[in-house]
Amino acid sequence: MINSRKGRCPGWIPGLAVMLVILLLGPAPATAEYGDVVINNYSDQAGMRPAIFPHWFHRIRFRCKVCHADLGFQFKAGGNDITMLKIIDGEFCGACHNGDIAWSVENCNLCHSGKPNTSTQVHQSTLQKLLAPAKPKAKE
Ligand code: HEC
Ligand code: HEC
Ligand code: HEC
């Protein structure tokens, strides 16, 4: 099931309302929250900010099986050898982030939104600050 943002009706539960506000404030990078996975096997070395994978955001939209069986994602933070070539080829994140199921790879900052030097990990605290400070129209 793929979420549509069209049906914005009153009566959202507060959590969802907050999420929606965050989404509407875009193009700011996704907010790091509990359960987000920071993936940084290569990013720092390549001069990119670490990738942040918002697990809950995806889990409420797709079954585990879609990613962990069909797309072959290992159940381990950093446990997949993900490169941009593979993503552009339609593997891993690229199976959906292709401008069809979800926005495409040109949106570098939406995925590479982590604070530089944050190691690969599952984000376990809402107090931890994993995101780079917001700066208007970052040039990358
Ligand atoms: C849909 C999410 C997503 C988008 C959009 C995205 N990336 Fe990535 N990228 C990743 C993930 C996940 C990794 C693996 C991170 C790691 O292990 O460090 C990665 C890795 C990389 C790497 C290191 C590995 C390699 O392939 O060299 C570079 C450099 C990179 N991305 C650049 C970019 C640039 C430039 C853009 C925009 C044109 C971009 N990325 C857009 C998710 C994304
Ligand atoms: C949209 C794709 C997607 C869906 C759907 C998804 N996952 Fe994941 N999952 C990932 C990715 C990506 C990672 C991080 C892998 C990495 O760092 O290379 C991950 C990591 C994990 C991990 C290891 C990190 C942690 O949090 O401990 C577990 C466990 C996990 N997933 C369980 C699940 C379960 C259970 C479901 C269904 C309720 C699910 N996943 C649904 C993509 C997905
Ligand atoms: C099974 C399909 C699927 C896979 C695989 C997938 N995504 Fe997504 N992702 C989506 C959809 C659908 C959205 C919502 C797009 C929209 O709102 O237009 C999304 C949204 C996002 C967002 C924005 C979340 C927000 O709060 O708006 C980020 C960041 C993201 N994905 C990163 C990743 C990264 C990194 C990977 C690979 C590790 C990945 N995604 C793999 C389907 C997927």
Calculate the terminal CA-CA distance, rounded to whole Å. Answer: 34 Å
Computed structural class: mainly alpha
Report the oligomer: single chain
Number of helical elements: 5
Can you tell me the CATH superfamily of the domain at 30-122? Cytochrome C3
Overall shape: it is: globular
**Strand order, largest beta sheet:** 2-1-3
Give a written overview of the molecule.
The chain is mostly helical. It has a domain of 93 residues: Cytochrome C3. Helix content is 23%, strand content 6%. It contains five helices and three strands, in the order αββααααβ. A three-stranded antiparallel sheet has the order 2-1-3, with no helix packed on it. 16% of the residues are buried. About 8% of the residues have low confidence. The site of one heme C has 23 residues, from strand 2, helix 2, helix 3 and helix 5.
Structure summary:
The chain has 140 residues and is mainly alpha-helical.
Keywords:
140 residues, mainly alpha, Cytochrome C3, 5 helices, 3 strands, 23% helix, 6% strand
What's the arrangement of secondary structure elements?
Elements: H1 14-24, E1 37-39, E2 51-53, H2 55-59, H3 64-70, H4 84-88, H5 108-111, E3 121-122
Antiparallel strand pairs: 1-2, 1-3
The structure holds heme C (3 copies).
